[in-house]
UniProtKB/TrEMBL annotation:
It is found in: Cell membrane. Pfam families: MFS_1. Residues 10-396 form the Major facilitator superfamily (MFS) profile domain. This is MFS transporter.
């Protein structure tokens, strides 16, 4: 009975940590507007801050994935949340560009451990048929964070400045860390102490890297995250600089787009989990086409209301793509390599976050507006679609 009660508490604990993770990721674009004004940062300098985060994120995805398989997810969660907490406090205290970049770099390192260890925990806790549901519920936090973050952060910024907003986010990480230490069971230790027969030896690392599912998802995750992080991090700057929208209205627009993210995550949990098991490629194909079309229509829309609708649709469909792809390693790869494989796939995802600011800075610098940026978003969505099509079907991957 005690173990059953522990299992019931796992998802809420991971859920809270994910809320903090996604608020930190997604509201940095909103925080960057007053931060850049106060410190007089250019668009290139803002891109360095954004990219530093994802460089740190990318570097540690695979090492943290490996540590999950070897030492367990609880250990990695504690390390991850501790690093993010310290990095957030440093970022909120920083006054120079170098300090801001360094703080976000280490925040990225901390963030790298959370998705892989959460995926490892889900794999250890839930049966195959419930993993899409559990993982989609966790990813739905991106939508919740996209709604509450942009709505609350401007209020906090108005009262305490952008530094106060960063410290409030750091408090969420402290709370999540306490709950992980106190309440999260050590599933890795439980497995080692159980009398269950040992699972087969882990696949060599080079075989994980060359697994076709891992390689294709690495590329597809990179391209869809170019879409997601361009929208999340750069839409506030686009709306402020090119459309002349106020920070308050920007927050409302981003929150409405965040509702699309929330519906997309829950839609994945219900629709894909219930009706399209092992037919995920078809879902991603259709969603990628809708994402590409709606991205182009965001820029073409003269009305802010119409722009908001297309942004909502673009965000919803791209999050559905991400959520669907994120569950594929959990269902198609052996449990002994889920942590490492998820780390590799997430490295591709975070490289998308590295490339997105560079792409935006180069395109805006070359063309003087954001039209080419939205064309790039559409192309990235179509690239995702192409590589997902080549992922082997379930029958061929079960033995992998």
């Amino acid at each position: 009975m005690e173990k059953t009660q522990q299992r019931k508490g796992i998802l809420p604990i991971l859920f809270l940590g994910y809320i903090a993770i996604y608020i930190d990721k997604l509201v940095i674009g909103v925080i960057a507007v007053p931060l850049a004004e106060q410190l007089n940062l250019s668009i290139d300098e803002k891109s360095y801050i954004f990219s530093a985060f994802f460089i740190g994120y990318s570097i540690m995805q695979i090492p943290f994935g490996y540590l999950n398989d070897k030492l367990g997810s609880k250990f990695v969660l504690i390390i991850s949340l501790s690093i993010i907490t310290v990095a957030s406090i440093v970022f909120g205290s920083a006054s120079t560009l170098i300090a801001l970049i360094a703080a976000r770099f280490f925040a990225g390192i901390g963030h790298a451990g959370y998705p892989t260890s959460s995926a490892r925990t889900v794999t250890d806790t839930y049966p195959m048929e419930k993993r899409t549901w559990a993982q989609s519920i966790l990813i739905s936090t991106s939508g919740i964070a996209s709604i509450i973050g942009p709505l609350l952060i401007p209020i906090v910024i108005g009262a305490f400045g952008w530094r106060g907003a960063v410290f409030c986010i750091a408090f969420l990480f402290v709370l999540a860390l306490i709950l992980v230490i106190w309440k999260l069971p050590n599933t890795h230790k439980e497995k080692q102490q159980s009398n269950q027969p040992k699972v087969k030896a882990a696949m060599p690392f080079w075989k994980v890297l060359t697994n076709p599912v891992v390689v294709l998802l690495f590329i597809a995750m990179c391209s869809i995250n170019i879409v997601l992080y361009t929208i999340a991090n750069w839409t506030p700057t686009y709306l402020a600089d090119e459309r002349g929208v106020s920070l308050g209205m920007i927050s409302v627009i981003i929150a409405i787009a965040g509702l699309g993210s929330l519906l997309g995550s829950f839609g994945t949990a219900y629709i894909v989990g219930r009706f399209f098991q092992h037919r995920e490629k078809r879902v991603i194909f259709v969603l990628a086409l809708i994402t590409a079309g709606s991205a182009l229509l965001v820029y073409q829309s003269e009305s802010i209301a119409v722009l908001t609708f297309w942004l909502f649709l673009c965000y919803m469909c791209s999050v559905m793509i991400f959520s669907t792809m994120f569950t594929l390693p959990l269902k198609r790869l052996h449990e002994t390599i889920v942590g490492t494989a998820t780390g590799v796939v997430n490295t591709g995802a975070t490289l998308g976050g590295v490339f997105a600011p560079m792409i935006v800075a180069q395109l805006v610098g070359a063309f003087g507006n954001y039209q080419a940026v939205f064309v790039a978003i559409a192309i990235a969505a179509l690239v995702t679609c192409v590589f997902v099509v080549f992922i082997p079907n379930m029958k061929t991957t079960q033995k992998a």
